[in-house]
Structures are given as structure tokens and as C-alpha cells.
Amino acid sequence: MVPPGDRASARDVFVRNLKVASADAERAGLTLLPEPLFDCYHVGRVGSDVIARLEGLLAIVRPVQIAAMPSRAESDRGDLDYRAVFAAIGRLTYSGWTSCEYKAAEPTADALTCTRALDG
């Protein structure tokens, strides 16, 4: 799996945009296997509307990955409203995994408790 990223976080990132990667694969007669990761942090870092992009790509992505934006700390802090993200995920009837990849600012058990609280 080659997850999309952003140049601010990783200068040598190969895939920068899921929509472009999906279109490239379709033109080549390929499918994206395994289903690509939707990384809310990287989508937000490049200035995209995370919820709008998620709504447009949720049918082709698994899992959804979360981290605070721009700090990449636990998801209950930062500029990205994960309550709204989780509400959109619920509205879109997503049944895949949601994963956390963050730079810990507190013990893991505390961070996961805060993240669970975001999912109403």
C-alpha cells in the first residue's frame, strides 16, 4: 500500500492525491488494490476540505486514518473537527476500519479514550 501524503510532511511522497491516483489507475485499466488509505491528516495538510473529499472517495478507500492537523498529535486536538468527520462517516454508512497514526502527547490509553469520545 502506498498512502497519499503531502510535501510538507514528507518530501519524497509518491502519491499526493487519491482522486488523481484513482483516475490514473482507471485510465490504465487497473484498480487500486488494496483499497487505498484515506489519511485525514494529509488531506487536511494540503488544504482540502476533508469531509468533502471523504464523501467523494469513501467508496474506494479503506481504512480512514486520523490524526490532529497540523500537529499530528491525538485526534481530539488541532484544526480538524473529528466530531464532524465521524458524523460524515456515520451518515455515509462506512463500515471499514478507522485507524490512528499520531505523535503521542499523552499515554495511549488516554488518547484512545479521547478519540472514542469524538465518535459520539
Automatic annotation (TrEMBL):
Domain of life the protein comes from: Bacteria
GO biological process: glyoxylate metabolic process
Residues annotated as signal peptide: none
Single Gene Ontology MF annotation: hydroxypyruvate isomerase activity
UniProt protein name: Uncharacterized protein
Species annotation: Lichenifustis flavocetrariae
